[in-house]
């Protein structure tokens, strides 16, 4: 049955529906009077408004139900403190975005009398027309709902009347049957109670029987699980024993297979060595025949050319000699005449002789005083100003005095004097020969050396033409001579050089940026141009994609700032062992990249011979002109004699065995040989001592590479290293060094011990 509150709600809804229906029904009557004008308006409207679609009134009603009407105070209200009721733009924006209007400028009256008008830009406001139209749509939706509710209400009222009649009839019949049913219900209740008591007794008996059966089942299940566990343990022990036997058999088979593979590899290596030796012998014979034919052809061509040009050269030489003789005679005659006149002029009066002598003495005194004073001033200036702190070594001296000479124009005289001196000393030496002379004792692969000489020639030409200098990247293993190449590159190019280490930048910390700016400003002041060599460049020029400190990143940015454009005042030469770690912007600034790799067999022979001749006296078949001035030894060192049997062939064999040795390691080996010979009997390097120390150094080098291999996961002393040596032609199966065989045996013994322990 309906409650009174629900009944009155339904009646109110019905009344509201009737009112809305009356309002909606009155509109057509008002519009029927001017049907003709309405038809004209519809025609005009159809022309003005197109794509007309009906509005979803239910959606408008749902949107309006979400809006929150709030009390608020407007900041710029004409009545200060007045509370208004309405919708806030921010609430409307989330529900009905099209109802928000944003005015470009909105003006409000001043808050105080006589004040200025308040102007707000981009002022949001609620479009009341849009909200009103949504209200109209919502009212239409409510009216439709009320019509449906009214019809439902009429049906419910009719149904209620019918149900009231049925209820009265049912109430009357139930009153008649109440007494008879009460007696019957009491009897039924008693029977049901008895039945429930019997069921409870039966359930209790069944529960006791079930508990007994469950206990018996649990005991049997526990015994079964214990038996299964014992059987599983026995099976696991048997499986473990079987697996261990299979593993031992597999290890034995693998050991036999590895030994067979090693034997086959050694046989294959020996066969390859024999084939390579045969091919090299045939190639050498063909090359010798070609050299003989080419030499004969060149000799015939030279003889023919000499016969054709002999007369011309003789006549030209005679004419040049005669002209030179006449020029020298005229020069000597003029000088002697002037000297005679000066002597006669001085000897005419004794006072002139005294004045002349005093003038000479005074000139010498002034010259010596000026030289000492300039040196003292230069030292004072350098002590007060100094070179940049990041530099470890530089060829620049007297920087401010050099700048003063340049300002006074005296560098023109110095350069002219140097050019004339080089002309009279070198004669007709070409520009290429003068550059190559700086690299005469530098041992590099032929292609790499040609690239270095070309870079020096380009830098030298760029310096004379005031063109931008080229930046160079030298990368390769440590000890291969990158610093020496940079020095010779600067000397051959006519530039000053300065050497710094990338690790020193991190040491100065936050002051690194200032130090780098001072370094590049100092480099820009070099009068001859400067080659700035940065060793261990990866220390502060690493990729910015990796983690680095803020000081290192700032130092990298400072260097990139100064090297953004090519300069004619300085160039960079970077040396690194890991070029792949450098920043991409640094690599982009490098014009040339050169790999200074470990020396091959010919280069090792030349380096070892050169260092040996610097420390020891030449042996019987020692090559001439190999003792250069570069290296770790002092130029005035006392060279020691060598014993019998130590020939160039022995030195070359030693160089072949020093595979993967750098130039620095070779120089240290020679230094050890010199120290050992100095302490030996007679201060002589014997053949036995030579090979004994060389084998020690080979063992030390192998141990270093083993440690590096253990750190990097690469076995450098294994079978594949031997095969690589054999395939490269530097080591055959017959002449493999005994220490390598000993290391292989030791390695095999260690593996066997490890297997036993396992």
Question: What report would you give on this structure?
Answer:
Helices cover 68% and strands 8% of the residues. The strands form three sheets. It has a six-stranded mixed sheet. The protein has a two-stranded antiparallel ribbon with strand order 1-2. The protein has helices spanning 4-31, 35-48, 57-66, 89-95, 128-347, 350-384, 399-408, 410-426, 431-438, 446-464, 482-493, 503-508, 512-524, 550-562, 584-588, 601-615, 648-657, 663-679, 687-712, 719-728, 738-757; strands at residues 70-73, 83-86, 100-108, 118-126, 391-394, 472-475, 496-501, 530-535, 570-576, 592-595. It contains 21 helices and ten strands. Helix 5 (128-347) packs across helix 20. It has 758 residues and is an alpha/beta fold.
């Amino acid at each position: 049955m309906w409650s009174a509150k629900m009944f009155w709600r339904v009646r109110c809804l019905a009344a509201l529906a009737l009112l809305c229906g009356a309002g909606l029904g009155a509109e057509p009557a008002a519009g029927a009077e001017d049907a003709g004008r309405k038809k004209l308006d519809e025609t005009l409207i159809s022309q003005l408004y197109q794509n007309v679609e009906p509005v979803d009134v239910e959606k408008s009603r749902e949107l309006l139900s979400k809006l929150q009407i709030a009390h608020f105070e407007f900041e710029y209200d004409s009545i200060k403190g007045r509370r208004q009721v309405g919708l806030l733009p921010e609430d409307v924006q989330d529900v009905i975005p099209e109802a928000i209007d944003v005015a470009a400028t909105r003006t409000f009256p001043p808050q105080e009398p006589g004040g200025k008008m308040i102007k707000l830009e981009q002022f949001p406001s609620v479009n009341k027309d849009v909200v009103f139209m949504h209200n109209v749509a919502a009212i239409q939706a409510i009216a439709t709902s009320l019509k449906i509710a009214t019809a439902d209400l009429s049906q419910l009222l009719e149904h209620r009347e019918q149900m009231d009649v049925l209820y009265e009839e049912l109430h009357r019949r139930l009153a008649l049957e109440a007494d008879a049913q009460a007696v019957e219900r009491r009897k039924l209740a008693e029977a049901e109670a008895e039945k429930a008591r019997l069921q409870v007794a039966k359930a209790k008996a069944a529960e006791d029987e079930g508990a007994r059966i469950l206990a018996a089942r649990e005991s049997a299940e526990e015994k079964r699980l214990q038996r299964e566990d014992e059987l599983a343990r026995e099976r696991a022990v048997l499986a473990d024993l079987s697996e261990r036997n299979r593993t031992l058999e597999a290890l034995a088979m693998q050991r036999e297979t590895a030994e067979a593979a090693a034997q086959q590899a050694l046989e294959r290596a020996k066969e390859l060595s024999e084939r390579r030796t045969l091919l090299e012998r045939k190639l050498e014979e063909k090359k010798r025949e070609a050299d003989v034919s080419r030499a004969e052809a060149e000799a015939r061509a030279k003889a023919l050319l000499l016969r054709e040009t002999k007369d011309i050269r003789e006549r030209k030489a005679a004419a040049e000699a005669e002209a030179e003789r006449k020029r020298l005679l005229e020069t000597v005659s003029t000088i002697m005449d002037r000297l005679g006149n000066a002597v006669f002029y001085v000897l005419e009066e004794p006072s002139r002789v005294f004045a002349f002598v005093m003038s000479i003495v005074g000139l010498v005194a002034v010259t010596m005083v000026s030289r000492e004073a300039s040196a003292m001033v230069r030292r004072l200036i350098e002590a007060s100003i100094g070179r940049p702190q990041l530099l470890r070594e530089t060829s620049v001296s007297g920087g401010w005095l050099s700048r003063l000479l340049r300002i006074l124009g005296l560098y023109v005289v110095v350069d002219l004097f140097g050019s004339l001196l080089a002309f009279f000393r070198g004669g007709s030496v070409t520009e290429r020969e003068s550059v190559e002379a700086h690299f005469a004792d530098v041992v590099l692969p032929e292609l790499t050396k040609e690239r270095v000489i070309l870079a020096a020639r380009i830098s030298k030409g760029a310096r004379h033409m005031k063109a931008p200098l080229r930046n160079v990247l030298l990368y390769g293993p440590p000890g291969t001579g990158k610093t020496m190449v940079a020095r010779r590159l600067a000397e051959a190019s006519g530039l000053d050089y300065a050497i710094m280490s990338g690790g020193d930048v991190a040491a100065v910390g936050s002051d690194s940026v200032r130090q780098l700016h001072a370094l590049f400003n100092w480099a820009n002041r070099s009068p001859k141009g400067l080659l700035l060599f940065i060793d261990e460049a990866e220390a502060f020029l690493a990729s910015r994609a990796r983690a680095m400190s803020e000081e290192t990143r700032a130092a990298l940015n400072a260097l990139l700032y100064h090297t953004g454009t090519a300069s004619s005042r300085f160039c960079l030469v970077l040396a690194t062992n890991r070029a792949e770690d450098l920043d991409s912007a640094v690599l982009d600034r490098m014009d040339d990249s050169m790999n200074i790799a470990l020396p091959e067999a010919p280069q090792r022979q030349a380096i070892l011979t050169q260092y040996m001749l610097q420390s020891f006296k030449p042996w019987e078949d020692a090559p001439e002109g190999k003792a250069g001035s570069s290296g770790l030894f002092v130029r005035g060192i006392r060279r020691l004699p060598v014993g019998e049997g130590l020939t160039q062939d022995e030195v070359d064999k030693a160089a072949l065995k020093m595979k993967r040795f750098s130039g620095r390691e070779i120089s240290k080996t020679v230094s050890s040989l010199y120290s050992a010979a100095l302490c030996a009997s007679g201060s002589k390097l014997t053949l036995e001592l030579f090979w004994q120390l060389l084998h020690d150094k080979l063992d030390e080098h192998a141990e270093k590479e083993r440690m590096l291999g253990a750190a990097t996961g690469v076995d450098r002393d294994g079978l594949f290293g031997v095969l690589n040596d054999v395939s490269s032609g530097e080591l055959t199966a017959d002449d493999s060094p005994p220490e390598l065989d000993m290391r292989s045996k030791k390695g095999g013994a260690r593996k066997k011990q490890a297997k036993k322990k396992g």
